[in-house]
Amino acid sequence: MKIVDLPADDLQVVNIGLESFAQDLRDQGVVVVQLDWRPPAGGNARMAALLASLEDDDDDEAS
Amino acid sequence: MSIKQANQEAIRRIEEGNAMWIDLRLACDVVPGMEDHTVLHAGPPVGWENMCGPMRGAVIGACMFEGWASTPEEAIALAASGKLRFDSSHHHRAIGPMSGIITPSMQVNVVRNERFGLDTFSTLYMGTGKVLRHGAYDETVMAKLRWMNHELAPLLKAALQHAGGIDIMALVAQAVQMGDEMHNRNKASNPLLITQLAPHLVAVGERAQVIEALKFIDNAGHFILNMVMAGCKSILDAASGIADSTIVTAIARNGYETGIRVSGTGDRWFTAPAPQIKGVFFPGYGPDDANPDMGDSAITETLGLGSLAMAGAPAVVQYVGGTPEFAIETTMNMFEITVAESKTLKMPNLNFRGTPLGIDIRKVVKTGITPVINTGISCKRAGVGQIGAGLTAVPIACFEKALEAFATARAV
Amino acid sequence: MPLKTQVMVSFYQDSVILMRVAAQLRTLPDVREVAMFMGTPANHALLEQVGLATDTGRQAGPNDLIITVDANDDGVAADAIAAAKTQLLETRKAREESSEFRPRSLESALQAMPGASLVSLSIPGPYVKDEALSALRHNRHLFIFSDNVPVEDEVQIKREAQRRGLLCMGPDQGTAYLGGKGLGFANVVKRGRVGCVAASGTGLQAVVSRLDALGEGVSHAIGVGGRDLSEAVGGLMALQALDALAADRETQAIVLISKPPHPSVLARVIDKMATIAKPIVVCCIGAAPGAAAANRLVWVETLDQAADAVVALLAGRTWQAARFSDGKQLAAQWARLDKPEAFAGRQILGLYTGGTLAYETGHLLQQALGADHPHRILDLGDDEYTIGRPHPMIDPRVRTEMIVKAGGDAAVGVMLLDLVLGLGANENPAESLVSAVHEARRIAADNGGRIAFLASILGTAGDPQGLESQTAQLHEAGIHLFATNADAARCAAMLVKPQLQAAWMNRECP
After folding, report:
1. What mean pLDDT comes out for the span C8-31?
2. Model confidence pLDDT, tens digit, residues C301-345
3. Which residues of chain A does B3 touch, with a Cβ-Cβ cutoff of 8 Å?
4. Does residue B399 carry a pLDDT above 90?
5. For residues C34, C36, C42 and C46, what is the CA-based torsion angle, rounded to 10 degrees?
């Protein structure tokens, strides 16, 4: 189990969902990118599950 | 290998590739598998019974050019009889816009990806209006076809030899910074080609010949397209067949179906019914006259040109419809479905950001954003020609099928 | 009149925007009901449940918007639908024109902002797992406001977070603070040296707000989600959070805030705490320390006591529980009550927007009045009250309706209320509360009855609503204000059971 490295002062957030949260963060001086989110694969659960199984991992070493 | 690593390898190969236009040759001499009575066509495999009007028209014209038939009726009978061997150009290292018909006696451009020793082939671009690729086959078309193959081709061949080849992708990189997207807008690249060719044409040709050739190339407007398409294919083919890669290596349409190929699944096609094109029509024509999406020219989009590079070519909206803001938005959307940005094709007005490179089928399915294609609209009746231009997209079903096949293959 | 439906294909909007537009349309004359939902399986079931499902609506997929109107005639319904579409398209257009870049995928968002440290999720529960795992794969921390996340998903996400040394704050977490910034519903508080681990939203808000008032600040407040301390999840994130705060240089004392954890989980948490050298206050509202409790831990019963105890510990003082949080203020309020004996034997109705505040009250009343008392303490943030309606901290409508209704309920003698300020909350919650109280009081008076309105305000001097003005509004409305929720609850208990007042106040207050 790795000890969590708590984020330092400069919090930067990707907000996925309620837009009001992005605004509240910006009001505190936090840099926020608001995602234009919608259900993956147009809501097709089977495709979404397939996609999840094929996702990249940042920990994959580059060749 | 992880998918991420496989995709990085695909991008690496694409970036390393180049495309030199080196020769003009007879198709039967260089195109693999170009046997007698072979008719290669654009898009995924399709039989005569399902071919759309313009493609049938082009087949008719080709049969007459080959001497396999002396009238359209004979050509139709021949095609329907099963005596012709139809196949996708893509299966033979060949490529063509619209109906993309290639037959043994046609002269073809030879474009070489030197780094990977990969040659690809395309016919000479005939121009706009009533042309073979739109299914026209009247006497003016046939005469032009003969002139191009018997007069123009030898002259170009000699010029190319004199030049030692012309670097097509270097030209493309310049043109992209001059507002071209290389699929529907070649207003800079075509003249650049002429600039490069002209001294060599003059060196090898008779004055009158050369003038005729230069005028033809200029009037054609998109003469360079067929070399660019072959160049894109030679670069992408080199990145095909990398197991675990989800990068699209071809997008092609035959007017009946649209198909894609993915590096990790090699030569397999994933197809769906060809969509209609939304756009602007020449006077006198409308959506009811339109043929569904057709042609191998979406190979440009596959390599990050065409609509993917639209942000750098805002003037193209005058041709396909829309606004400059829409052009930028289109490219921004395409960044969402690609894995990299081109190191050589840059868009000045996006701060010289590279064009979106490497369409990833996972990203397409996840976001629902499908590659947009800028394209001409053919009349669905053979023989009329182009009736407009516009925008369409590759059906999501192609990518969903590809994703399933990829996942299955990977699980094995 | 049959229901009228229109489906907007491939038109995704978040639930808060949809509910806001729907609420506006409901005010149109002759419009009885408006439902605006994405066509997800959960929403389809919901529409069936409330009788607003239609054949047209049933065609909609998860990415399609269903607009269904129940109106007195077809023309009115059609107009309402047209108005809805116009509003939504205008919202979308305004956003597009604002030239703010909105990526469509996490990958492109992270490309645009490679320094992103956290991904905040407030999307429908069934979609949380894939997005959360994606964020973790990109080595980013998570704040998950969403509820209705299946417990298996929560466990899978937290195990992955644990493996990578990342935070998963949630699911179903309303509040958190990282590096001085508030996430979700957050009061504006000082940065400081107290670290919090909270399986609670308003509970955390209450503690940090009181700390702020007492001059202490927050280093980080790690929300772990309401279900983290259950047997199924086993305190995965709470243990992770405790380690993080133990290692964090800014944090000099730690507070744990939750409802009573599963005993096995509590034991594990206590074991973990035994390894931490910093002073720790444990507030599990009602959970008893048990024999194996480490001696260094300070156990408190209520949220305000958690703040008081940590302040004392940091000052090197011993903390002792008092009967009341602020005996003086309570005595003053008691004195303002007109004939308090009239409330003996009456019913208490608690209408809470903050879940943990409701829980705290429930616990205190049980303690004071026995397990089978007749009083009702409602958490209006609970699922049953928020179907198709925003959380009461955002939209006070449901509570104001219930307050007015209670005015006509002869059994109700005492109403307990909370007023939660801070980021994310309603911009003037006092206003609607006050008008509802006036109305309820009038109705009660008409029936010859009386209701005592007791409240506490959860807020700080820095909150955007203006603590002073909110306080003044409640005062002017004759609402009895207490320093803490616990005191308000105690006062309510004393009103309905005078023996308590005799026992508690005569010992405590001058």
Report:
1. 86
2. 999 999 999 999 999 998 888 999 999 999 999 999 989 999 999
3. 54, 56
4. yes
5. 0
Structure confidence at residue A63 (pLDDT): 39
- Name the residue with higher pLDDT: B389 or C152: C152
Mean pLDDT of B114-142: 95
Instruction: Name B242's Cβ contacts closer than 8 Å, sequence gap at least 6.
Output: B6, B9, B10, B13, B263, B264
Where are chain B's structural domains?
17-230, 241-411
Q: Which residues of C touch B333 (CB under 8 A)?
A: 104
Cα dist from B116 to B17, B19, B94, B234, whole Å? 7, 10, 16, 9
Residue ranges of chain C that CATH labels 3.40.50.261: 106-314, 327-508
What residue ranges do the domains of chain A occupy?
A: 12-53
| Contact status, residue C67 vs residue C36, Cβ threshold 8 Å | yes
Q: What is the pLDDT of residue C293?
A: 54
Q: What does the mean pLDDT of chain B come to?
A: 95
Kindly report the number of other CB atoms within 10 A of residue C485's CB atom: 32
DSSP for residue C423:
B
pLDDT at B332 over 90: yes
Write out residues 29-88 of C within 8 Å (CB-CB) of A: 38-40, 61-63
Structural class in CATH, domain C106-314: alpha beta
Within 8 A of A11 by CB-CB distance, chain C residues are 117-118, 178-179, 181
> What's residue B412's pLDDT?
73
Q: Which of C158, C282, C164, C289 is nearest to C227 (CA)?
A: C158
Taking only the tens place, the pLDDT of each residue in C235-291 is 999 999 999 999 999 999 999 999 999 999 999 999 999 999 999 999 999 876 665
Its pTM surpasses 0.90: no
Three-state secondary structure of C434-445: HHHHHHHHHHHH
pLDDT of residue C203: 97
User: Which of 1.50.10.10, 3.90.78.10, 3.90.1700.10, 3.40.50.11740 is the CATH number of B241-411?
Assistant: 3.90.1700.10
> What is the per-residue burial (b if ≥16 Cβ within 10 Å, else e) of C133-161?
bbbbbbebbbbbbbbebeeebbeebbebb
Chain C: closest CA distance from residue B402 (Å): 20
Query: Residue C97's pLDDT band (boundaries 50, 70, 90)?
Result: low
Class of domain C327-508: alpha beta
Q: Which residues lie closer than 8 Å to B369 by C-beta, 6 or more apart?
A: B333, B334, B336, B337, B363, C104
CB contact under 8 A, A47 and B368: no
Look up residue B59 and give its two tokens.
């087949």
pLDDT over threshold 80, residue C96? no
Kindly determine whether residue C40 and residue A5, on different chains, have CB atoms separated by under 8 Å. no
Cβ-based contacts of B410 with chain A (< 8 Å):
54
C83 sits in which H/E element: helix C74-97
Percent of chain C exceeding pLDDT 70 equals 96
Compute the C-alpha angle B224/B229/B234, nearest 5°: 125
User: Which part of chain C has CATH 3.30.1360?
Assistant: 4-97
Q: Where are the alpha helices (DSSP H) in B268-356?
A: 299-302, 317-320, 324-335
- Are the Cβ atoms of C63 and B335 closer than 8 angstroms? no
Chain A touched by B407 (CB under 8 Å): yes
Fold classification of B17-230 is Enterococcus faecalis V583 fold (3.90.1710)
Residues of chain B contacting A63 with CB distance shorter than 8 Å:
1, 5, 8-9
Q: Say yes or no: domain C4-97 is CATH 3.30.1360.
A: yes
- Contact: B336, C63; criterion CB under 8 Å: no
Q: Which runs of E-coded beta strand occur in C205-279?
A: 218-223, 253-257
pLDDT digits (tens, 9 = 90+) for C389-412: 788 988 899 999 999 999 999 999
* pLDDT exceeds cutoff 90 at C105: yes
> C105 and B335: CB-CB below 8 Å?
no
